[in-house]
Automatic annotation (TrEMBL), chains A, B:
Keywords: Lyase, Pyridoxal phosphate
Chain ranges passing through the membrane: none
Obligatory cofactor(s): pyridoxal 5'-phosphate
Keyword hit for Nucleotide-binding: no
Source organism: Spongiactinospora rosea
UniProt KW Lyase keyword: yes
InterPro entries to which the protein is assigned, alphabetical: Ser/Thr_Dehydratase, TrpB-like_PALP, TrpB-like_PALP_sf
Name of the featured protein: Threonine dehydratase
GO MF annotation, one: threonine deaminase activity
């Protein structure tokens, strides 16, 4: 069992706190994808829930603890999905939720955050600037700050996906996980290394937002000056040291993929699987496309972790050559 | 408990026979759809499985019984989804599967039937002609014929969706069910009328394929000469008397919707819910769109029963005005 900050018993217990609407998401082999990919492809689908991403698993834990603790308010920075999920979980528990996001985040994500009764504050900058602003609000107002990937609940909530993957019979040879701040990668990775240590844990990040992958390979935090990717959900510049330390213990590899592979992945998920994936959710398919030889004939699972897209942009991406 | 051909204990037992990959499909409230529809909309999603429709629930029962009975072959007529599901379930049990379909069925459905190792025979005609041809093959070859909606397993398999809907707390005011041959409508309707009799069971069919709806309203079988709808999954002309008799006992209403409402439904499911629905799977949303007053403020569930589309046609349908 890897010596991360995560705990398998707490992760198991988390299943009793998380609204069941987020648990036991579909997991199925999608043979229609396989001729083009050359391996057995299993989809773990995290988009068929009220917030269309896996983030509800973590925010259910966060909001539940805050409510038990008598807290009335919470603030987070978000690329869009965490904020939407925290708004959903907080609303159900009477919490006053503030979300700080980039003005450049997909409008669909920002609209849903507002629709779920959260206060939305926009910054003229990227996700890491939103993080700074959220921290400042928390200090100013004396409100609890939720930090994605650093707060253990965000990792252990996401880790419940790992429990569901580890239950699969037969087991997988490799699991592909989108890598951003690292909550999902460390969470799912911790569970797999604990319960199914033979499964290769592969993190996937865009070449245009490579900070955590560089950090993993160099075994120390590497920051970048900017990001340039359509995968808004994983576009961070400043890895968190504690999260990197955990990731070093549970990931077998971290790879980078090109933008055109991400688009091809979205197109394949739509055309062959009938699934709307946001760019971050297509990273796993992109990784297979870029290294078919590595996965040839193996049993692979990929987490389709979110489906919140601006539909105009999405249709432009996939429409160029649908179904290919 | 309605006196149909169906039996609630057999339906409960069916859950132990059906591959779990088809059971406990996502059921969640989709608030993003609600401003446009004016009611609380709950999605029962039957597309996130290996055959992208609810039909696997029934074919698992069929194939399991055939295998237990030592049968080696089976033939069915299909609009596309039943054939794909029977091919999947039959392959897993070593059955030789023949599917008869219309040459005009969506290519995506026909391709998947072939890919799942079934023998595909095409007829120059519609679904009801495929039914005649499948019956002739069964007689000629002495092979078991599976008749969708007539064979009780196809109804009781679909009925397991009803068990999952009846478990929902709080319950729904109305459930909208696509109506074609009637397997899903009688199956889900039987369970709801047994376990949650207060729930209004509303069947929805296209104006361009109204035979079963006409039959339900006149309480006798009414056939039509032709069909004219994009909802290929429910385009039948010749209702089956036994199925109509059951439907009369479990449906509270049967309504017809226009093609443009079906397209608007698909567009809304994509734009607001991120879901790829085939035309038949958008019938419930279409029914709400055509009669907002009837559903205003009520808790409604609709079964998104399939997602097998030809992507070119689908993108033409939804692309006209995405997100509206």
């Amino acid at each position: 069992m890897p010596e991360t900050r995560l705990d398998i018993d707490r992760i198991r217990a988390a299943r009793r706190v998380i609204d069941p609407v987020f648990l036991n998401s579909p997991l199925y082999r999608c043979e229609a994808l396989e001729p083009a990919l050359g391996c057995a492809v299993n989809i773990k689908l995290e988009t068929a829930n009220p917030v269309r991403s896996f983030k509800g698993r973590g925010t259910e834990l966060v909001a539940s603890l805050l409510a038990d603790d008598g807290q009335g308010a919470v603030v987070c920075a978000s690329a869009g999905n965490l904020g939407q999920a925290l708004a959903w979980s907080g609303r159900g528990r009477g919490l006053d939720v503030t979300v700080v996001a980039s003005r450049h985040a997909p409008a669909a994500k920002l609209d849903r955050i507002r629709a779920l009764d959260a206060r939305l504050e926009l910054v003229d900058g990227d996700f890491d600037m939103a993080r700074e602003r959220a921290a400042a609000i928390a200090r100013r107002d004396g409100v609890r700050l939720v930090e994605d990937s650093l707060d253990i609940e965000t990792c252990e909530g996401a880790a419940t996906i790992g429990l569901e993957l580890a239950d699969a019979v037969p087991s997988f040879d490799a699991v592909l996980i989108a890598l951003g701040g690292g909550a999902m990668a460390t969470g799912v990775g911790h569970v797999l290394k604990t319960l199914a240590p033979g499964v290769e844990v592969i993190c996937v990040q865009p070449l245009g937002a490579p900070a955590m992958t560089y950090s993993w390979h160099r075994r120390r935090v590497v920051t970048t000056d900017s990001t340039d990717t359509i995968a808004d959900g994983v576009a961070g510049r400043c890895p968190i040291p504690d999260v990197l330390a955990d990731l070093l213990l549970v990931a077998d590899d971290a790879v980078l993929v090109r933008e055109e592979s991400i688009i091809a992945g979205m197109r394949m998920l739509l055309g062959h699987a009938g699934l709307v994936a946001e760019p971050s959710a297509a990273l796993g398919i992109a990784a297979i496309l870029e290294d078919r030889a590595r996965f040839a004939g193996r049993r692979v699972a990929t987490i389709v972790c979110g489906g919140n897209v601006d539909m105009d942009a999405y249709l432009r991406w996939v429409d160029a050559a649908p179904g290919t």
